[in-house]
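Standup notes, protein team

Yesterday: finished cleaning the Luteimonas composti set.
Today: Protein-glutamate methylesterase/protein-glutamine glutaminase structure.
Blockers: none.

Input for Protein-glutamate methylesterase/protein-glutamine glutaminase:
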Amino acid sequence: MNMGTRPVRVLVVDDSALVRALMTELLGAAPGIEVVGTAADPYIAREKIKQLAPDVLTLDVEMPRMDGLTFLRNLMRLRPMPVLMVSSLTEAGATVTLEALALGAVDFVAKPRIDVARGLAEYGAVLVDKVRQAARARVARIASAPSGRKEGPIGYRTTERLLAIGASTGGTEAIREVLEQMPADAPATVIVQHIPAAFSGAFAERLDRHSRMTVVEATDRQPLLAGHAYVAPGGRHLRVVRSGARWMCRLGEDDPVRRHRPSVDVLFQSVAEHAGRNASAALLTGMGDDGAEGLLALRRAGAHTIAQDEATSVVWGMPGAAVANGAAQDVVALEQVAQRLLALSRGS
């Protein structure tokens, strides 16, 4: 969506009057954003969407009369628009939020902690950034429901290859789509998705349900095995190191890189150093430029490198940066990423 010089018009939907007031204040103070209205439940929101034609909706998951997921499902079917979910950073919140992203929500932000006043400035900056990105995002149509774990022919045989994938905004569903296409014995795959600590375990479990590979949240010193994918835990960097004849995961709580921990750059740099030409990597949809320098390091180390194309990215920040700096050998649509990774790993 090209907003030009017109402010981004936001409708805030939350059953808490205090949260509505807080989010209105935080967003209203930002240049280029206008809160055009608020709604205490989805029924009121539905009418205000018709009246006010907002560019972005912030939507609480838990509301009276109609839950956020039901409202989102109806909205994306009847009037698709950029939606930013407001979620509690809990295991239950993670499950619902991942479902919301599958239904077409662009991104999510933590529910503001009203009792922590000094954190509100930082929270407001994140909220404003995500609203602006949502306004520019490509809204996904509701796809057919994920098919679940598929049994099928194996057909891939090597233990000397490694795949690496990085993503941010829009990435939870993009990664799912890539892994759904992988055979059961695909090369070991390491994944960084920008995600909070409370969400990464639920994210790995969701991927595992929809992949022939075994998908787990990575643990420190865990050996990398073919047919397995390893998701970086939220709040910890994931690196790949060589240990004798095999690779293993190393987790770290060192400083964030490009404001992120886990960082795609950190993962990709480690894969470049320890796997080099034995690796293939893909940088998928995401806000910012994390991963672009790491993908360039991979290309220079002899690895095969891919960026998701602009047309299929929710936000073409990270892959776009990799195209701009020359890191990406191939630029392909999301539905082609898995097959391209496998073809490159086979040397074809």
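Follow-up from PR in the comments: Residues 152-158 have pLDDT under 50 and may be disordered.
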